[in-house]
Amino acid sequence: MGLLSWLQNRRETWAMAKALASASTSSQLLPLVVGGEHVPLLSDSTHVQGYSLNAWVYACVNRIGHAVAEAPLIVEQRKGTGRNAEWSEVDGHPLGELLEYVNTDDDGYQLRLQTASWLALHGNAYWLLLRGTGSLPAALQVLPPTTVTVDAGQGKRSGSVRGYKVRDAQGRESSFDDTEIVHFKLFGARDMLYGQSPLKAIETEINTYTASGHFNSAYFRNGAVPSIIFKALAALTPEQKARLSASITEWQRHRGSRPLLLDGDLEAIVQGANIDAGTATALPKLLRETIAAAFGVPPAMIGLLEYASYANANQQAREFYGSTVTQYWRLIESAINEQVTSLYGDQYRVRFETTGIAALQTNFIEVATALSSLQAHMTTDEIREYLLDLPPLGGDWGTAKWGSFSETVLARPGED
Question: Which of 16, 54, 55, 393 could cross-link with 397 by S-S, CB 3.0 to 4.6 Å?
């Protein structure tokens, strides 16, 4: 049973059968197709449905969202100017409290999770700045990007965005200027006002994956009965065709659980007598890897472990946080600093605090392995200075090439 045949409309299938019948006066081929239902397809306006239609889209978006949300947002203040400028964290800053409080329903983790998830799924994310009695925001609200339209033009802050229109659940539209909405977006090649969803590049793959899943589901719902072609040795009369059609319809209604009795010179030809021939198995496996690649999520991070070992699974985690997640952090930081932080003064910035992310921390087992090969060529102090950013030890330890791992990494200058 072919996947393309299964996806055809019943009317088209019977039209093909009639064409085959009219082409030959000595025989007829009447195909019986399992299922015949239409499959929901993704398009520009329905990308967000991929989250509920495809398990691997769900897994990738979920993984990106929670990974980004793991790192808290902190506020830093600049001291000095130019190359001598230093940044230090500011405790209790109003912006920091806003990013952690958010609103009466959400906290900082939910804010980061929703923002990153919408970015990964839709290519755009929006915050509505809810102002209190003053000019500074008192709360934040994440808006579903499917409800927001960008209004091009000269704005109060932006030279290309005049404002935004937001639809509520009842379809009513409200307008906001460009200082009231924070817009996060991925790169979009077709329209500079909007970001492009990763799903745009893999629409065909996701639609094919979804179709293959429906194909397999219909096959098993039909009692794992494969498609059948009925062959007649002579042309059937209209009455015989009608009787056969009624018998097939009744047989399908019972999902093939009852035997189909054939009379006359009819022969049933089974297309695919085993599950491997009757279902799509290899295709979904290939497509899931394409979907993961488009989102920048290594296979091991979403449970695809057949190609993973302990060593490369850890490496995949480091690459995921070091590339994909870091890119989301930078995009979100950039939008906040450009559109929100400037309200509090140009001496402040917001950034993600990543020191608590295990995948980004030094792997001392790898360091020890590397040191064991380098110690024959570099002194302990050279390794500390150029590779570990540690102060020199000096003395015999510092100039020697035989220092142990603990001496090289953990020792402190001037200590016995």
Answer: 393
